[in-house]
Design brief:
With 353 residues, the protein is α+β, with helices and mostly antiparallel strands. It has two domains: 2-104, no CATH class; 108-261, Chondroitinase Ac, Chain A, domain 3 (Sandwich), CATH 2.60.220. It is 51% helix and 22% strand. It has four helices and 13 strands. The strands form two sheets. Strands 2, 5, 6, 7, 9, 10 and 13 form a seven-stranded antiparallel beta sheet that branches. The chain has a six-stranded mixed beta sheet with strand order 1-3-4-8-12-11. Strand 11 and strand 12 (241-246) form a beta hairpin. Helix 1 runs antiparallel to helix 2 (26-45). The chain starts with a helix and ends with a helix. Residues 65-105, 324-353 are annotated as: Disordered. Residues 1-18 form the signal peptide. Keywords: Signal. Residues 87-102, 329-346 have a biased composition (Low complexity).
């Protein structure tokens, strides 16, 4: 009887502490546990167990139930931890993407510059475009990138300190002197001289800005120089911008000008080209004429030689004829002499008779 009571009590206790079914709700579970506990206590009281036995039994049951609860809680904690880890991983990836995007945007900075006023530029190889106060036809821009911070000062010269390269003219009567406080323009990671055209400006009417160039003043000669040795010149149609990407060996600290080909020079080059072609054609025609003249001369010489040969032949024929006549005359004279001599002999003979 005692064993049956204990077994029944254990069954009620385990049932009262079973884990709730999903969606069962706390209220229903609490009511069920209360009923089972009451039944268990009633059975234990009639079991005849001593207080020591009851205490030992209840402690064992409590420890068993506590272990089960901890295991269930541990499972829930692991699942929650895994979910949190996944969530944190997603958030971390998103954070890295945002950081990368921010870094990309931060690698190029546009700054507004004012002539004759130093503009602070950062190091860290951050590309920085300093666009200065626009003029009547466009705006000057200096691009800077280096691992060391610097200060850029640009001065607009209303009267350039040199003349334009041969065949070119200033886009506008101005030049731009670039000065760098720290680097002096040497050894920069990137340095560009740009000019952004205002295509609506009246001063650009009739001018082909796609042929524009950037020139550097040569103080020794007092003239600006346009050369591939300075760097690569490119016209960016989308930006209406001419840009000179300076070679590493070229110092950015200098006086720069923006130039376009002189319209007359371009026309003169075209005319010169046409003139050269005409000269070439003339030379060819002259050579052909000389050949024709030579042929005509040869023909004339041939004709003259033929005529001369004919005359010689005629003269030779006449001479032969004269010689023949002379020969005939000589023969006649000999005959007459012979006849005369014969007659004289006959006369002498008659006299003797």
């Amino acid at each position: 009887m005692k064993g049956f009571v204990v077994t029944a009590a254990l069954g009620l206790f385990i049932g009262s502490h079973a884990l709730p079914t999903p969606g069962g709700g706390i209220s229903a579970q609490g009511q069920s546990q209360g009923v089972n506990l009451a039944q268990m206590l009633s059975l234990l009281q009639t079991s005849g167990l001593s207080n020591t036995d009851l205490s030992t039994l209840l402690q064992s049951l409590g420890a068993s139930n506590s272990g089960a609860g901890q295991e269930a809680a541990g499972g829930e904690g692991v699942a929650a931890g895994e979910g949190a880890a996944k969530g944190n991983g997603t958030e971390a990836a998103a954070g890295e993407g945002e950081a990368a995007a921010g870094e990309g945007e931060g690698n190029e900075v546009e700054l507004a510059g004012v002539f004759d006023t130093p503009t602070a530029v950062e190091g860290g190889d951050i590309k920085q475009d300093i666009k200065f106060t626009p003029s009547t036809v466009g705006a000057f821009e200096f691009e800077f990138q280096n691992d060391v911070a610097d200060e850029v000062t640009v001065t607009e010269n209303a009267t350039p300190n040199g003349v334009a390269p041969e065949g070119f003219e200033f886009l506008e009567p101005a030049s731009y002197t670039v000065a760098l406080g720290v680097s002096k323009g040497e050894g920069l990671t990137l340095s560009k001289i740009d000019y952004i055209f205002d295509t609506t400006a009246a001063g650009l009417a009739g001018k082909d800005i796609t042929t524009s160039k950037v020139g550097r003043l040569c103080p020794e000669t007092g003239s600006f120089v346009i050369s591939e040795a300075l760097g690569e010149v490119e016209f960016e149609a989308e930006e209406n911008e001419v840009t000179l990407n300076l070679n590493k060996a070229v110092t950015a600290e200098a006086e720069w000008g923006i130039f376009i080909p002189v319209a007359g020079a371009a026309a003169g080059e075209a005319v010169a080209g046409e003139g050269e072609a005409a000269v070439a054609e003339g030379e060819a025609a002259a050579a052909e004429g000389e050949a024709v003249a030579g042929a005509e001369g040869a023909v004339k010489e041939g004709v003259a030689a033929g005529e001369q040969a004919q005359k010689v032949a005629e003269q030779e024929a006449k001479l032969a004829e004269a010689e023949a006549k002379l020969a005939e005359g000589a023969e006649g004279q000999e005959g007459a002499v012979a006849e005369g001599e014969g007659a004289a002999v006959e006369g002498d003979a008659e006299k003797e008779d």
